[in-house]
Amino acid sequence: MGSNPGHPVPLGFVFRSRAKEEKAAGVVKAPPSDSKQTRDPQAPKGRPTPKRSEAQTQRRSVANTTLTRKDAAKRQREERRVQLERQRQALASGDERYLPVRDKGPVRKYAREFIDSRINVAEFFLPMAVVILVLSMVRVGALQSIALLLWLVVIVLIVLDSIVNGFRLRKRLAERFPDQNRRGAVAYALMRSLQMRRLRLPKPQVKRGERP
Fold it and tell me: What's this model's pTM, rounded to 2 decimal places?
Protein backbone atom coordinates (compact mmCIF):
# COMPACT_ATOMS: atom_id res chain seq x y z
CA MET A 1 0.00 0.00 0.00
CA GLY A 2 2.98 2.35 -0.45
CA SER A 3 3.66 2.57 3.28
CA ASN A 4 6.98 2.16 4.86
CA PRO A 5 7.49 -1.60 5.48
CA GLY A 6 9.14 -0.80 8.69
CA HIS A 7 5.93 0.71 10.10
CA PRO A 8 2.94 -1.68 9.93
CA VAL A 9 -0.57 -0.09 9.35
CA PRO A 10 -3.01 -0.55 12.23
CA LEU A 11 -6.04 -2.76 11.47
CA GLY A 12 -8.44 -0.22 12.99
CA PHE A 13 -7.40 2.38 10.45
CA VAL A 14 -8.10 -0.03 7.57
CA PHE A 15 -11.59 -0.92 8.81
CA ARG A 16 -12.47 2.74 9.40
CA SER A 17 -11.37 3.59 5.86
CA ARG A 18 -13.54 0.83 4.40
CA ALA A 19 -16.52 1.94 6.46
CA LYS A 20 -16.15 5.53 5.18
CA GLU A 21 -15.93 4.29 1.58
CA GLU A 22 -19.10 2.16 1.97
CA LYS A 23 -20.96 5.06 3.57
CA ALA A 24 -19.94 7.38 0.74
CA ALA A 25 -21.01 4.77 -1.80
CA GLY A 26 -24.41 4.53 -0.07
CA VAL A 27 -24.88 8.28 -0.32
CA VAL A 28 -24.09 8.24 -4.02
CA LYS A 29 -26.50 5.33 -4.65
CA ALA A 30 -29.36 7.01 -2.78
CA PRO A 31 -30.80 9.08 -5.69
CA PRO A 32 -31.76 6.08 -7.86
CA SER A 33 -34.03 4.87 -5.04
CA ASP A 34 -36.07 8.13 -5.38
CA SER A 35 -37.12 7.18 -8.91
CA LYS A 36 -39.10 4.29 -7.42
CA GLN A 37 -41.48 6.56 -5.47
CA THR A 38 -45.20 5.94 -5.69
CA ARG A 39 -46.95 7.74 -8.56
CA ASP A 40 -49.89 9.97 -7.79
CA PRO A 41 -53.03 8.40 -9.29
CA GLN A 42 -54.11 11.87 -10.46
CA ALA A 43 -50.72 12.68 -11.99
CA PRO A 44 -50.20 12.05 -15.74
CA LYS A 45 -48.85 8.62 -16.63
CA GLY A 46 -45.08 8.37 -16.39
CA ARG A 47 -44.74 11.41 -14.11
CA PRO A 48 -43.94 11.38 -10.37
CA THR A 49 -46.13 12.86 -7.65
CA PRO A 50 -46.00 16.69 -7.65
CA LYS A 51 -43.79 18.12 -4.95
CA ARG A 52 -45.32 19.87 -1.97
CA SER A 53 -44.16 23.28 -3.19
CA GLU A 54 -45.86 22.70 -6.55
CA ALA A 55 -49.11 21.65 -4.87
CA GLN A 56 -49.03 24.75 -2.67
CA THR A 57 -48.44 26.92 -5.74
CA GLN A 58 -51.44 25.34 -7.46
CA ARG A 59 -53.62 25.94 -4.39
CA ARG A 60 -52.55 29.58 -4.24
CA SER A 61 -53.34 29.93 -7.95
CA VAL A 62 -56.86 28.56 -7.42
CA ALA A 63 -57.38 30.91 -4.46
CA ASN A 64 -56.25 33.88 -6.53
CA THR A 65 -58.62 32.88 -9.35
CA THR A 66 -61.54 32.64 -6.93
CA LEU A 67 -60.70 36.04 -5.49
CA THR A 68 -60.56 37.51 -8.97
CA ARG A 69 -64.01 36.14 -9.77
CA LYS A 70 -65.41 37.63 -6.59
CA ASP A 71 -63.91 40.98 -7.46
CA ALA A 72 -65.36 40.76 -10.98
CA ALA A 73 -68.83 39.94 -9.63
CA LYS A 74 -68.60 42.79 -7.14
CA ARG A 75 -67.54 45.16 -9.90
CA GLN A 76 -70.47 44.05 -12.07
CA ARG A 77 -72.92 44.65 -9.22
CA GLU A 78 -71.49 48.11 -8.66
CA GLU A 79 -71.72 48.95 -12.36
CA ARG A 80 -75.31 47.70 -12.42
CA ARG A 81 -76.18 49.86 -9.42
CA VAL A 82 -74.64 52.93 -11.05
CA GLN A 83 -76.50 52.20 -14.29
CA LEU A 84 -79.84 51.89 -12.48
CA GLU A 85 -79.22 55.13 -10.63
CA ARG A 86 -78.45 56.89 -13.92
CA GLN A 87 -81.64 55.49 -15.43
CA ARG A 88 -83.67 56.70 -12.45
CA GLN A 89 -82.25 60.20 -12.81
CA ALA A 90 -82.76 60.11 -16.59
CA LEU A 91 -86.42 59.11 -16.16
CA ALA A 92 -86.88 62.20 -14.01
CA SER A 93 -84.89 64.59 -16.21
CA GLY A 94 -85.45 63.09 -19.68
CA ASP A 95 -81.73 62.66 -20.34
CA GLU A 96 -81.62 60.54 -23.52
CA ARG A 97 -78.17 59.13 -22.78
CA TYR A 98 -79.24 56.96 -19.83
CA LEU A 99 -82.88 56.18 -20.58
CA PRO A 100 -83.96 52.54 -20.82
CA VAL A 101 -83.94 51.06 -24.33
CA ARG A 102 -87.73 51.18 -24.66
CA ASP A 103 -87.72 54.96 -24.09
CA LYS A 104 -84.71 55.87 -26.25
CA GLY A 105 -84.71 57.52 -29.64
CA PRO A 106 -86.35 60.51 -31.30
CA VAL A 107 -89.42 58.48 -32.32
CA ARG A 108 -90.26 57.47 -28.74
CA LYS A 109 -89.51 60.99 -27.51
CA TYR A 110 -91.93 62.52 -29.99
CA ALA A 111 -94.58 59.94 -29.07
CA ARG A 112 -94.25 60.90 -25.40
CA GLU A 113 -94.46 64.61 -26.14
CA PHE A 114 -97.48 64.07 -28.40
CA ILE A 115 -99.39 62.49 -25.51
CA ASP A 116 -98.08 64.86 -22.83
CA SER A 117 -99.07 67.97 -24.80
CA ARG A 118 -102.79 67.16 -24.80
CA ILE A 119 -105.58 66.16 -22.42
CA ASN A 120 -106.33 62.46 -22.75
CA VAL A 121 -109.56 60.90 -21.52
CA ALA A 122 -107.76 57.74 -20.46
CA GLU A 123 -105.58 59.53 -17.90
CA PHE A 124 -108.70 60.31 -15.85
CA PHE A 125 -109.83 56.70 -15.82
CA LEU A 126 -108.63 55.93 -12.27
CA PRO A 127 -110.34 58.90 -10.54
CA MET A 128 -113.53 58.31 -12.50
CA ALA A 129 -113.39 54.60 -11.68
CA VAL A 130 -113.25 55.40 -7.96
CA VAL A 131 -116.31 57.66 -8.24
CA ILE A 132 -118.23 55.08 -10.24
CA LEU A 133 -117.32 52.34 -7.77
CA VAL A 134 -118.61 54.40 -4.84
CA LEU A 135 -121.89 55.10 -6.65
CA SER A 136 -122.35 51.43 -7.46
CA MET A 137 -121.95 50.49 -3.78
CA VAL A 138 -124.76 52.78 -2.65
CA ARG A 139 -127.94 50.76 -2.28
CA VAL A 140 -130.06 53.13 -4.33
CA GLY A 141 -131.39 51.87 -7.62
CA ALA A 142 -131.11 55.22 -9.42
CA LEU A 143 -127.48 55.74 -8.37
CA GLN A 144 -126.52 52.22 -9.39
CA SER A 145 -128.08 52.81 -12.80
CA ILE A 146 -126.12 56.05 -13.14
CA ALA A 147 -122.91 54.26 -12.17
CA LEU A 148 -123.47 51.61 -14.85
CA LEU A 149 -124.19 54.28 -17.44
CA LEU A 150 -121.01 56.17 -16.46
CA TRP A 151 -118.98 52.98 -16.89
CA LEU A 152 -120.21 52.63 -20.44
CA VAL A 153 -119.64 56.31 -21.24
CA VAL A 154 -116.07 56.28 -19.86
CA ILE A 155 -115.13 53.14 -21.76
CA VAL A 156 -116.55 54.49 -25.04
CA LEU A 157 -114.79 57.85 -24.59
CA ILE A 158 -111.46 56.16 -23.85
CA VAL A 159 -111.74 53.92 -26.91
CA LEU A 160 -112.67 56.80 -29.23
CA ASP A 161 -109.97 59.08 -27.85
CA SER A 162 -107.36 56.34 -28.19
CA ILE A 163 -108.36 55.67 -31.81
CA VAL A 164 -108.14 59.37 -32.72
CA ASN A 165 -104.82 59.83 -30.94
CA GLY A 166 -103.37 56.69 -32.52
CA PHE A 167 -104.42 57.77 -36.01
CA ARG A 168 -102.99 61.27 -35.62
CA LEU A 169 -99.76 60.08 -34.04
CA ARG A 170 -99.17 57.47 -36.74
CA LYS A 171 -99.59 60.16 -39.39
CA ARG A 172 -97.23 62.59 -37.61
CA LEU A 173 -94.57 59.94 -37.15
CA ALA A 174 -94.72 58.95 -40.81
CA GLU A 175 -94.21 62.60 -41.78
CA ARG A 176 -91.39 63.36 -39.35
CA PHE A 177 -89.52 60.05 -39.29
CA PRO A 178 -90.08 58.39 -42.69
CA ASP A 179 -86.76 56.53 -42.65
CA GLN A 180 -86.69 55.44 -39.00
CA ASN A 181 -88.14 52.43 -37.25
CA ARG A 182 -91.57 53.44 -35.90
CA ARG A 183 -92.68 49.98 -34.84
CA GLY A 184 -94.46 49.94 -31.48
CA ALA A 185 -94.37 53.72 -31.04
CA VAL A 186 -98.15 54.18 -31.24
CA ALA A 187 -98.86 51.43 -28.70
CA TYR A 188 -96.12 52.90 -26.49
CA ALA A 189 -97.86 56.31 -26.59
CA LEU A 190 -101.34 54.90 -25.93
CA MET A 191 -100.09 53.00 -22.90
CA ARG A 192 -98.61 56.25 -21.63
CA SER A 193 -101.97 58.00 -22.09
CA LEU A 194 -103.52 55.55 -19.59
CA GLN A 195 -101.27 56.89 -16.82
CA MET A 196 -101.94 60.02 -14.80
CA ARG A 197 -99.68 62.83 -15.97
CA ARG A 198 -97.73 63.22 -12.74
CA LEU A 199 -97.05 59.47 -12.57
CA ARG A 200 -95.62 59.13 -16.06
CA LEU A 201 -92.01 58.05 -16.60
CA PRO A 202 -90.01 59.56 -18.16
CA LYS A 203 -91.40 62.77 -16.70
CA PRO A 204 -93.30 64.99 -19.18
CA GLN A 205 -91.00 67.57 -20.76
CA VAL A 206 -93.72 69.65 -22.47
CA LYS A 207 -96.69 71.54 -21.10
CA ARG A 208 -100.30 70.92 -22.05
CA GLY A 209 -101.14 72.71 -25.27
CA GLU A 210 -97.47 73.03 -26.22
CA ARG A 211 -96.82 71.65 -29.69
CA PRO A 212 -94.12 68.93 -29.72
Answer: 0.63
